Amino acid sequence: MHGPSAEPASATPSVTLLTEGTYPHSHGGVSVWCDQLVQGMPDVDFRVIAVTGTGREQLAWQPPGHVRGVEAVPLWGPPPSGRAPRGRALRRFLTAYELFLLTLLDPAQEHHFSRAFHRLADHATEGTLFPALRGEEAVRLLARVWNRPGLATADARPTLHDALTATDLLEHALRPLAARPPAEGITHAVSGGLATLPGLVAHHRHGTPFLLTEHGIYLRERYLGFRAEPYRWPVKALMLGLFRMLAVESYRTAALVTPGNRYNRRWEEHGGTPSDRIRTVYNGVDPAAFPPAGPEPEVPTLSWAGRVDPIKGLETLIRAFALVRAEIPDARLRLFGGTPRGGEGYRTACENLAAELGVGDAVTFEGRVEDIRDAYAAGNVVMLSSISEGFPFTLIEAMSCGRATVSTDVGGVREAVGDSGLVVPPRDAPSMARAALTLLRDPGLRARMGEAARLRVIEQFTLRQTISAFRDIYHDLAGLRQPVPAHTPLARPAPVMAMAAGGAG
C-alpha cells in the first residue's frame, strides 16, 4: 500500500538514491520510506546505488519501472578488481593514505580530510585503492602512524594484529568508492555514513547536487554499536574517526540536509551544518492505509513491531513486561518482526532473558507479519523500546491505527507522540512498566489517547505531505524552482566525544 502521489510537475530531475543496508534489499522503516518516495513520484527517473552486505542479497522490494537501475555495492563480497600500485604510484598512494589516516586520528589534521578523501577516491577509480589496502605497506604505515608521539593511540600500544584488523575494516568500508559517481541529476543519500560516498565524489567531480536525509543519526548509532565490538581501542578510534569525518564532510557538502525530526537537526547543527541548509521533513503515512485497528484483544496484550536488533532495546521491554506480569498475571507480550542475519544471538539472548525472568511462556516472537497492521491490532497497547530512533514508522503507523502507545524518549519520538501517548526514558524498565500498567488498567484513557493519536497523524504526518516536500526539494536542487541557498562557511567540527555525548537520548 503506497498511498497517494503528490501532484506531478511539468519537469522533474533524475534522482540517484544512495542507501546502505536498506532499500531495495532489506525490510525496515527506511526501506518503507524509500519505497513510498519512489512510488509517490512516478514521473521521476530514479536510480539506486545500494550498499549491501555480501552481494548475495535478494531484492526485498520490487522497484517500479521508473527506477532505471539498481547497482549493488557489497561491503563483504569479492573485492573490487584492480592492480596494486608499484614504484612511484605506490609512493604516491602511501603519501595520500598517510594524510588520510592522520585526518582520522589527529584533530590538528582534520581540515585536510576532504583533500585526502578525494585522493583515495581517485585511486579507487584507477583500480589501485583496494589492492593497495590489502598490501603489507598499508598495514605497516598504519602501525607507524598510530605510534606517532602526541597521538592518543600511541599510549594504547597498538599491535600489528590491530593494524591488520583496522586496515581490513577500512578497506571494506571504503568499497562504495568503487561505484560510478552520478554525473547528472541529484544524489540523495537516505542516511549518513557509507551511503554518502558516491554522492560526495559525484559532487566533487561533477558538481552533482547532494541531498542528505537522516532518519537516525548514523554517527551516534556507530558510537552505540562500537561499544559492543570486540576490537581494541586503536581500531575503534580509527573507524569512529572515519564515521565522524564522513559526517562532517557530508554536512559540508550537502546542498540541503533534511532531518526527520528536530532532534536530528540539533546534531546536524552541532556537526557544522548552517541552519539555512537544514529543512525538517517528517515521515508520513497514508491514514487510509492504516485505519483504526478495531476491537482490542480480550487478553491484556502489549505488542511491538520492528527488527530484532540490540538498538531496539528489547531487553528493557522484556524486563518491563516481567514487572507488568507480576501485576497482571494473564498479560502477554507479542513481538512482531524478523531477525536480520547475524542477529540470531541477540534473539536467543532475549528469549533466555524472558525465561530467566519467568515470563518465557508469555513472550512470543511472532516473526515477520504479512500485514503490519495485524501487529498493531494484536495489542491493547503498542510499545516502542528503542535506545536510538529517528522518526519511527512503527510509531506513527500504530498511532494512525488508533492504538495507545508507550515509547522511549529518543530521537523524534516525543515530536511524533505529543500528548497522545506515554513517553518514558530509554533503558528504564520500571518506568516503562508503570506506563504500560497505567494504560492496561484504564480502557477509557487508552481510547482517548488512540483517538488523539490518529487525529495527530492526519493533521501532521501524512504521506502526501512528505512526498510533496521532497518533490519541491528535488525541483529546488535542480534549479527548476527557487534555488537552495548557497554554501556558507562551516564552523570547526565539534570534538568526537562532545558529539557523542551531546546526542545521548
Question: Which properties best describe this structure?
Answer:
505 residues, alpha/beta, Rossmann fold, 3 domains, disordered C terminus
Give the N-to-C terminal Cα separation: 32 Å
* Main beta-sheet annotation: 6 strands, parallel
State the name of the first-level CATH class of the largest domain: Alpha Beta
What is the name of the CATH architecture of the largest domain?
3-Layer(aba) Sandwich
Shape: globular
CATH topology grouping of the largest domain:
Rossmann fold
State the helicity in percent bands: 40-55%
Low-confidence stretches: 1-10, 481-505
Number of strands: 12
GO molecular function: glycosyltransferase activity
Protein name: D-inositol 3-phosphate glycosyltransferase
Domain DUF3492: 14-275
Organism: Streptomyces triculaminicus
Plain-language structure description:
This protein is an alpha/beta fold and 505 residues long. It folds into three domains: 15-78 and 179-283 and 474-502, Glycogen Phosphorylase B (Rossmann fold); 87-142 and 153-168, no CATH class; 301-460, 3-Layer(aba) Sandwich (Rossmann fold), CATH 3.40.50. It is built from 19 helices and twelve strands. A six-stranded parallel sheet has the order 3-2-1-4-5-6. Strands 9-8-7-10-11-12 form a six-stranded parallel sheet, with helices on both faces. Helix 14 (393-400) links the parallel strand 10 and strand 11. Helix 2 runs antiparallel to helix 3 (113-126), helix 6 packs parallel to helix 9 (233-253) and helix 14 packs across helix 17 (443-460). It is globular, with a radius of gyration of 24 Å. The two termini are 32 Å apart. Mean pLDDT is 90; it is low at 1-10 and 481-505. InterPro entries: DUF3492 (IPR022622), PelF-like (IPR047691). Pfam families: DUF3492 (PF11997), Glyco_trans_1_4 (PF13692). Residues 14-275 form the DUF3492 domain. This is D-inositol 3-phosphate glycosyltransferase. One of its GO terms (molecular function) is glycosyltransferase activity.
